[in-house]
Every structure is written in structure tokens, then in C-alpha cells.
Amino acid sequence: MDDKTHNREFLKIIEEHSKHLSLLIDDVLDLSAIEARRMEFRLEPVSLAEVTAQLIHGLAPMAKAKSLTIDNQLTDKLPKVRADRDKLAQILMNLIDNAIKFNKAGGRIEIHASSENGKVKVRINDTGVGIAPADLPRVFERFYRADKARSHAIAGTGLGLAIVKHLVEAHQGTVTAESHPGQGSAFTFTLPCA
Fold first, then answer.
1. Lowest-confidence region among 107-111, 134-138, 176-180
2. At 133, is the secondary structure helix, strand, or coil?
3. What is the pLDDT of residues 165-177, one digit of tens each?
């Protein structure tokens, strides 16, 4: 603290590491609660279009900083899903946040949905760096990071997609990932209609 030249820099590093540790603890607690089936779900009819629009509005500054275009094609014509609104927001937040973080400057994110056989299928495409074929089967594992070289440069706990998988499955849905390195990724999940 006596080093006036570097003390603010050190405090900033401590603050950043503290925030990351706090996020990690929150994610670990969430994941363990989901896996132990201790997390409560208040299932009700929820508008995907409404939840998605609210999240995109909140993430707009982050997308703007990278000059990204977000094309949200979800409308109120889409059937409502049977979901816990907050958990659904957590699923979408993780997926859209990743699409922003791992996208190229000036890239694009598209959000589509359709309904069939009593389920709503949501697909989030991005024009980002993509995921190598060898890494793709493991992206939903705890702490797995496909791009280890960039893992320190991009904030995250490595638990977001594991949480997405467990939350979607707790809603009686499925989640999948597709990718072409250098061209982007697509994450698709299904939820039951209300």
C-alpha cells in the first residue's frame, strides 16, 4: 500500500479477482442446487419473446461495444413455454452472453424459435470464433473451456453452459450445440409449451 505508483493497479486486480471469485461461488452453488434437486422451480406460462427482449435490452451496451447486431426474431405469436421465468432468463442470459463474448467485432447474433410437437425450440446463432470439433462434445461439462488460450481474456467461470444444460433438463427440455470453427456456433434448446 505504500507503493503510490502501483497501489491503485494492485487494488484493481484484487477487485477483479474478487468479482470473478464471487461469480464462481454463485455458479457452483447454483449448479450444486440444481444437481441435488434442491432448487425450487415456479413453473408458469412464460413468454419467451418478452424475456428475450428484456435480456437483449440489458446486454445492448456489451453488444454495442463490439459493434454486434442482434436479430431477435421471437414474437408474441410464439406459444408460451412452461418454465420458471427467472431460470429461463438465466438460460438465455448465459447463451446470449456467450454469443456476445465469443463473437467477432462487427458480428451477428440471430435468435429464432419455432414450435412443434408440444415443444418450443429456440436457436441462438452467432458469427463468432466457433468451437473445434474435438471440444464440441464437452462444452456442457463443468469448468470446460474450449478456447484455453482466450479463457483468461474472456470473463467467465466455465460453468455457464453446464448450468444451462441442467436448467433446460430440469424443465424437461434438451440442449445441443453445433459449430464451425471460424464461422460461429449455434445453441438450440427446447422447452415444453404451456
1. 134-138
2. coil
3. 989 999 999 999 9
